[in-house]
TrEMBL record:
Lineage of the species this protein comes from: Eukaryota, Metazoa, Chordata, Craniata, Vertebrata
GO biological-process terms attached to the record: calcium ion export across plasma membrane; regulation of cytosolic calcium ion concentration
Annotated GO CC locations: endoplasmic reticulum membrane; plasma membrane
EamA domain location: 82-213, 235-364
Record membrane topology: Multi-pass membrane protein
Protein source organism: Dromaius novaehollandiae
Subcellular localization(s) per the UniProt record: Cell membrane; Endoplasmic reticulum membrane
Name of the gene encoding the protein in the UniProt record: SLC35G1
This protein's name: Solute carrier family 35 member G1
Keywords recorded for this protein, A-Z: Cell membrane, Endoplasmic reticulum, Membrane, Repeat, Transmembrane, Transmembrane helix
């Protein structure tokens, strides 16, 4: 190992060497001040069979020839707005997926969920093998992964059921109440702060749910703007709200686990537990059957592919963009749902639905902005 100097000391070393660049690139840790020395791998250490890998600490494990602070190395800047574009694309793919779900006629919502889980498993399995994560995960995290898979897959099945029995826009709007439930559940289980603003956003979400559900004891017996009878509409509302709560529980569990578990392993549990549960439910209901219509089979494949694509783009968006802007931009789901419902399902939303959508979107957007502000404030404090 050799010592790499930072700043003016390095320039002096270059001059002393006759103007030649040093063989070992410069490296400076974030917590090291000017003039302090850091350990960098010596040239030829790897070839000499040294145990220490030639890795630079300032680049999150990149090998030293590609060090971000090496002479002549330029860090590639991300394309501005690319994360938000991925979010809009993800929202569009999820909305088209829900439209195809509405178009399927002879396939139960649980069976659609089972096909979706099969696609998830087919995608994740090569990743598990490549990253060598195993199939069970760390012993101390397996119980959390199990409940992550259970609540995540339950949210999917309940949402698919809601799409089948109530207007597309109504079900989509109700799912956007999940950030409010996440704040509440994080306060209960993770002891996170729950302020008066969170309570206000919760009341906004409840108001939106009431406007969409339109219970007869508030709106009378003649409820308009629903698909089928009111009993199915009420069942769909309960399913969508339960799906939002399950999604919130999933987020709380993922926050509890943190980065100690690989993302692919989390999806693997989601797919395996979801498929197992769907098969059990379909067997008990005696609803398991391949679709008779070729059109339904095409829709099933498209639901699996587009749903997976939406999840991939959403993940990529969260990797290169802050969670706050992504959460706000994800409300495009609602806009796409309204447009697709009008264009392809010939179902005009009522003013009650529009009002409920505005309340729920205001609630979820307010929650996202508040969390974004808190994280930015905390980051500035850490820098100081």
């Amino acid at each position: 190992m050799v010592l790499c100097q930072g700043g003016e000391a390095a320039a002096a070393a270059v001059s002393a060497a006759g103007g030649k660049e040093p063989e070992v690139p410069l490296s400076q840790e974030d917590d090291a001040g000017p003039g302090q020395s850091q350990l960098c791998p010596a040239p030829g250490a790897e070839a000499a069979g040294a145990d220490e890998p030639r890795v630079c600490g300032c680049c999150s494990g990149l090998s030293w020839p590609r060090c971000c602070k090496a002479p002549g190395t330029k860090k590639k800047a991300p394309c501005p707005g690319l994360g938000l574009f991925y979010t809009v694309l993800s929202a569009f793919l999820f909305s088209v997926t829900s439209l195809f779900l509405k178009k399927i006629e002879d396939v139960h919502a649980v069976e659609v969920s089972a096909f979706r889980c099969v696609f998830q498993m087919a995608f994740v399995l090569p990743g598990l093998i490549y990253y060598k994560t195993g199939f069970l995960g760390p012993k101390g995290k397996r119980i959390f992964l199990f409940f992550r898979g259970f609540f995540g897959s339950s949210a999917m099945v309940l949402l698919y059921y809601a799409y089948r029995v109530m207007p597309l826009a109504d079900a989509t709007v109700l799912t956007f109440s999940s950030p409010v439930f996440t704040s509440l559940l994080a306060w209960i289980f993770l002891k996170e702060k729950y302020s008066i603003w969170d309570l206000l956003f919760t009341l906004f979400a409840i108001t939106g749910v009431v406007l969409i559900a339109r219970p007869p004891f508030l709106f009378g017996s003649n409820v308009t703007g629903i698909e089928g009878n009111y009993a199915d509409h009420l069942k769909g509302t309960i399913a969508a709200i339960t799906s939002a709560v399950s999604t919130a529980l999933t987020f709380v569990i993922l926050r509890k686990v943190g980065k100690s578990v690989h993302y692919f392993l989390s999806i693997w549990y989601y797919a395996v537990i979801g498929l197992t549960g769907c098969v059990i439910v379909l067997s008990l209901m005696n609803e398991w059957s391949l679709p008779y219509c070729g059109k339904d089979r095409v829709f099933l494949i498209l639901i699996g592919v587009l749903g997976l694509g939406g999840q991939i783009f959403l993940t990529k968006a969260l990797q290169i963009e802050k969670a706050g802007p992504v959460s706000i931009m994800k409300t495009m789901d609602v806009l796409f749902a309204f447009i697709l419902q009008i264009l392809f399902l010939n179902h005009l939303p009522t003013w009650w639905t529009v009002g409920g959508a505005l309340c729920v979107i205001a609630s979820s957007t307010g929650t996202a902005i508040r969390k974004w502000h808190q994280s930015s404030k905390k980051a500035k404090q850490n820098e100081i």
